[in-house]
């Protein structure tokens, strides 16, 4: 019985500390080194706080007007610090480590997020961002809606698979049509292909250069082209011109070549993922009723 006052005092002190911690001002000047994170910040109403972004932050279009701090893996401490940020956000892909250490030493808060191609990672990232932005409720709503849309698409794909076998797919990442890298196992590219209902034909791990002869031998039914320098039909034509052996594949002969925005392959899963999956799934199952709507 004699210990109760001390317990109450400790509890009150703990609650007071929590209240003070919660009352700490939210960071107002943000630098984001990750395209998906930048998109989520904008979706949560925090775009006005961004004072700089990396080169993978291409959406929404208005982000391109902000100062660039370089590519997420090759950041410059001087460029970041010149923007006087309160916080630097990025995924575990962000670096190099000495730059992050220098930024921290300068008093800038560094917050890391997951780049995993995983819906659970989206939930965690949104929760984390919601806390930093003071938009916890909106983050919860976005996470719930996101899962519902992807679940509806998965159900539609499952139905389409009852009418058609999953097509063999290869995802090619190129630059101006040059020799492409193929998205192998345990990559964001492979995850996208599989979530959209395709069968990734590449059995190697990671992204790897493969000869055009090997590509022709795999004979994919669908090619997904993601070019870092070109967009749309220009990316497709450059890939075929620079790699003429691709024309021998079923995908090229049947005109089943799909273009994918390369920013979807780095920095985790962003707000545009459901639409991207829907576009891929419709290319994989042209006769199916594949939709994000239940």
Automatic annotation (TrEMBL):
It holds the Pfam family Peripla_BP_2. This is ABC transporter substrate-binding protein. PANTHER family: HEMIN-BINDING PERIPLASMIC PROTEIN HMUT (PTHR30535:SF4), VITAMIN B12-BINDING PROTEIN (PTHR30535). Keywords: Signal. PROSITE patterns: FE_B12_PBP. Residues 29-288 form the Fe/B12 periplasmic-binding domain. The lineage of its organism: Bacteria, Pseudomonadati, Pseudomonadota, Gammaproteobacteria, Pseudomonadales. The keyword Ribosomal protein does not apply. It comes from Pseudomonas cremoricolorata. Residues 1-23 form the signal peptide.
């Amino acid at each position: 019985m004699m210990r109760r006052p001390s317990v109450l005092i400790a509890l009150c002190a703990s609650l007071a500390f929590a209240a003070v911690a919660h009352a700490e001002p939210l960071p107002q000047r943000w630098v984001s080194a990750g395209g998906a994170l930048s998109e989520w910040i904008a979706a949560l109403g925090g775009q006005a706080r961004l004072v700089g972004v990396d080169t993978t932050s291409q959406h929404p279009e208005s982000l391109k007007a902000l100062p660039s701090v370089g590519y997420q893996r090759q950041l410059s401490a001087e460029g970041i610090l010149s923007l006087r940020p309160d916080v630097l956000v990025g995924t575990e892909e962000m670096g190099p480590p000495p730059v992050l250490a220098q930024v921290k030493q300068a008093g800038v808060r560094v917050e890391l997020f997951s780049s995993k191609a995983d819906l659970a990672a989206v939930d965690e990232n949104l929760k984390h961002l919601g806390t930093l932005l003071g938009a916890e409720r909106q983050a919860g709503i976005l996470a719930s809606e996101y899962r519902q849309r992807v679940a509806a698409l998965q159900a539609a794909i499952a139905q389409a698979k009852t009418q058609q076998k999953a097509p063999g797919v290869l995802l090619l990442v190129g630059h101006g049509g040059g020799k492409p890298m193929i998205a192998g196992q345990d990559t964001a590219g492979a995850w996208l292909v599989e979530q959209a209902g395709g069968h990734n034909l590449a059995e190697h791990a990671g992204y790897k250069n493969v000869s055009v002869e090997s590509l022709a031998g795999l004979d994919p039914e669908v090619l997904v082209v993601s070019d870092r320098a070109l967009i749309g039909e220009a990316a497709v034509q450059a890939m075929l011109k620079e790699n003429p052996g691709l024309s021998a594949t079923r995908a090229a002969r049947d005109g089943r070549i799909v273009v994918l925005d390369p920013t979807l392959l780095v920095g985790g899963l962003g707000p545009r993922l459901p639409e991207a999956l829907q576009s891929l799934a419709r290319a994989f199952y042209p006769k199916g009723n594949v939709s994000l709507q239940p």
